[in-house]
Amino acid sequence: MSTTTIDRRELPPVPPPGPTEFFARDAYAVVTAGKITAEVLRLAYWDPRDGEDTVAVEYEVRMNGLPDTGGLSDLVAEKADTLTDLSAVCEAAATLLAEVQR
After folding, report:
1. In what order do the strands lie in the sheet with 22-33?
2. How many other CB atoms sit within 10 Å of the CB of residue 90?
3. Which bin fits 69, alpha (ψ -120 to 50), beta or left (φ > 0)?
4. Which secondary structure element, helix H or strand E, spans residue 87, and what is its range?
5. pTM assigned to the model
6. Using an 8 Å Cβ cutoff, are 55 and 16 in contact?
7. What is the pLDDT of residues 63-88, one digit of tens each?
8. How do strand 36-46 and strand 22-33 relate by DSSP bridges?
9. Chain centre to alpha carbon of residue 83
10. What is the Cα–Cα distance from 76 to 63, expressed in whole angstroms?
11. Beta bridge mates, 7
């Protein structure tokens, strides 16, 4: 089992609404275990044509392709429950994989 590292980052201020459209993507943290990496991202979007007076802000986690699948396992989650469920499934699958490989 690999050591898990967490690199927390200082988020810049969310840009204010302005005359032009923008999309800002900032990493709050990067989590690494072995060759597997996940980013906790803040996404900020503004388009004056939307008629909104505030910038839309969302958070998501992106796991970038597992090393032994050629990147075919990208994952994006917007809810913590999704990651909790993923963790439970991964833990059980890891146990079963180790069991069957004995």
Report:
1. 4-8, 22-33, 36-46, 56-64, 75-77
2. 11
3. alpha
4. helix 80-100
5. 0.76
6. yes
7. 876 777 776 777 888 888 888 888 88
8. antiparallel
9. 10
10. 7
11. 30
